[in-house]
Amino acid sequence: MNILEMTPEHISEYIDNGGITSFVSSKKGVYPISYLEYAKEDISTEISRRTIVNAISNAKRAFHFQVDIICDSFGWDKYKKNRNSGFPAKLEYLSKCGIISPNILLKLNRVRNTVEHEYSVPSEEELRDYIDIVELFLMATKILTDRYPASIDFDLMQDEDYDTTLELPESIIAKITMHEGGIELSGNNETRTISIDDSDYYPWLAAIVSNYLR
């Protein structure tokens, strides 16, 4: 099978063997983790309505900022066009890119809807749950900002479950263009380009990113 005949499902037959990564810098000179630390500091010595509101505000900044950075690096501006560009749409986009699973998306939305109401003050327990969820999200996605997968070398696993009749390339290279979107697959002296506007772009991106994160 050549590169042009491959489908996103075939990526599961490969293992990440390194490649080229890039650091995703913040244009604002500050990073989401800073806001998360501010949130923790807000409630470190006092628990009151004031400190809870301040902590929620900072934790929310950390969460939304991380989502913005990752969405931007994976071509959000090219994708959104005339679509809804609100925060829930960005979370859906991360799921579409294979960065968060549908189950995690549901949990994030459930917790977010509980604590992010503009004029309500959550309980201390709800606040701490929210901070924990935001921290877990930052930790889980840190690899994508510290080591964005600009180019991944994939090697065919050929384990006991591998279907030898597929005759997949023994190795392929997947390149993802930061910010602009677009994928280039190469192997066996063949190259395949997948545009962000192609119907199979996001299935390919999700398969590649999911493999990278596993």
Structural class: alpha+beta
Q: Could you name the CATH class of the largest domain?
A: Mainly Alpha
CATH architecture of the largest domain: Up-down Bundle
Number of domains: 2
Counting DSSP E segments of at least 2 residues, the number of strands comes to: 5
Give a verbal description of the structure.
It is a single chain. This protein is α+β, with helices and mostly antiparallel strands and 214 residues long. It has two domains: 3-23 and 148-213, no CATH class; 32-146, Four Helix Bundle (Hemerythrin (Met), subunit A) (Up-down Bundle). Helices cover 47% and strands 16% of the residues. The protein contains seven helices and five strands. It has helices at residues 32-42, 49-73, 76-80, 87-96, 102-115, 124-146, 201-213, and strands at 14-22, 148-156, 171-176, 183-187, 190-194. The protein has a five-stranded antiparallel sheet with strand order 1-2-3-4-5. A hairpin with a 2-residue loop joins strand 4 and strand 5. The longest helix has 25 residues, at 49-73. It is elongated. The model has no long low-confidence stretch (mean pLDDT 91).
